[in-house]
Amino acid sequence: MPYLVESDLPREPAGQRFRQLLARPGIVGMPGTHNGLAALQAKAAGFEAVYLSGAAMSASMGLPDLGIITVDEVCFFIRQVARSGLPVLVDGDTGYGEALNVMHMVRAFEEAGAAAVHVEDQLLPKKCGHLNDKKLADAHDMAAKVAAAAKARRHLFVIARTDAAASEGIEGAVARAKLYLQAGADAIFPEALTSAEMFRAFARAMPGVKLLANMTEFGRTPFFTASEFEAMGYRMMIWPVSSLRVANKAQDELYAAIRRDGGTHKMVSRMQTRAELYATIGYHDYEALDASIVRTVLPNGPADRTE
User: What is the DSSP letter of 164?
Assistant: First the structure.
C-alpha cells in the first residue's frame, strides 16, 4: 500500500520496532538495500529489516567508500529505504567527525526514519573493513562517540563497530567492545573476522551481548549462512552490498548488449516487466488515491514493429 496513507504507516518508532525484532528468537537477517525499490523488493521477499551500506551509497553516487559522502546525502537514501516501512540499519561510518558531529548524525538519521546505526572505530579517511592498513581511533575517543550517540538518540538502536581484530587481534577487539558497551552501545559489530573460530571466540568473550555479523562477498570473511552465524552466537547479520553487485553486473551486461547488438532485444527476457515493477511500487494503489487519474492499462508487451 502507498506510504501516503496515514493508516498504513507504522505506529511505533523505527528503533522500537527494531528492538522488537531482536527480542524474538533467532537471527535477524538484513540484506543491503541501496535504494527505495530494493527495499520494497526485500520486503516482498519476506525480510523484516534491511541494511543501508556506506559502500553501496557511495558506489551508487560513483564514489569510493572513503568517508566522502555527507550526513545529508545519507539521509536522502534513508528516506527512500525507510519508505518501505521496514526498520533500516544505517552505516554511520566514523560518525562524520567527533562527538558533536555524531550527535548531529544521530538526530538527522532518526528524523529521516532510521531504526539503527553503526559507528566504527576507524580514523578518516576510512576504508572498507575488509581492506588493508586501516587506521584505528583511540579506543577512548571512540567510546566518547558512542556515548554521544546514546545521549542524542530517542529510539535509535546504536551499534558500535570495531575494526581492531586485524591489527590488535580478538583480545584487542574484545577490550574495545567492552569499553563501547560501557559507553552506551546497544550491540557490537566485530568487523572482518576471518574464520568460524574467530567469530566463536568473540561471541564467547561477549556473553549476553547482541552481536552483528557481516557477510560480504570478496572480503576476508568466508561464506557463512544465517543459521551458521546464529549457531556461533550472533543475533544480526547483514549482506551489505550484494544487491548492488548483482544489479551492477546486470547493468554491465545490458550496456554491452546494447552496444554490441544495437538494441535491448536480446536482454528483454532478463528484465523486470512493467507489470512486475508496478506491482512492486504499488502503482495502481497510488492511482486509486487521486480520482483525477484514470487507471493505467498496461501494454501487453513490446509494440509490433512496422516498416
Answer: T
